[in-house]
Amino acid sequence: MAEAHAKHHDYHLVEPSPWPAFGATAAFIMAVGAISWMHHSFPAAPYVFGAGVIGVLYTMFAWWRDVVREADREGHHTRVVQISHRYGMILFIASEVMFFVAWFWAYFDVALFPTDVHQVMRDEYIGGVWPPKGIQTFDPWHLPLLRKAEAVDLAEIGADRRGRDVVGRLPQRRARRLIDDREIDRRDLADPHVDRIDLGLEPPG
After folding, report:
1. 71 and 5 within one domain
2. Are 174 and 201 in contact (CB under 8 A)?
3. What's the pLDDT score for residue 157?
4. Which of 40, 55, 84, 88 has the most neighbouring CB atoms within 10 Å?
């Protein structure tokens, strides 16, 4: 009987798992709770959302625990299975790339060719112009430019402050590192001027 169930191949035939159904149910509860919370549908909506989040997190933990057990303890992730995992990830990334290519292709096709003669309904739907007729746009050289400049300025100020803090700590770190490396006896540090010259923190006068 045991020989009938023995594994004679390099592939992994997974056992039935409750986590897909459990995770989908938890995600549905989380979505219902979040939507109800945002719309103030009922007072218990935050608790429903929290229960869904806990269910999703538990699904992630339990499902990954099973995968790790199958790989490390049970030895199901053979060389062939690992190659299949890599191919699956490569195909997933490629599908995401193709999705965004199609997305931006559609956008730029409509934006650059709003009066394409081959797209009969396009002219009627957007009015033959881009942005579509009836949509008012704001000047990108006014408020958006000011907000962008403000964000860049704040980022530079933060980087400058962090850089000055790091530079201010460098002499102390260098001194401690040199003391540790050279194993300088603290009793020899009586003369501060000589010590700073020795540590390279002050040029000799």
Report:
1. yes
2. yes
3. 80
4. 55
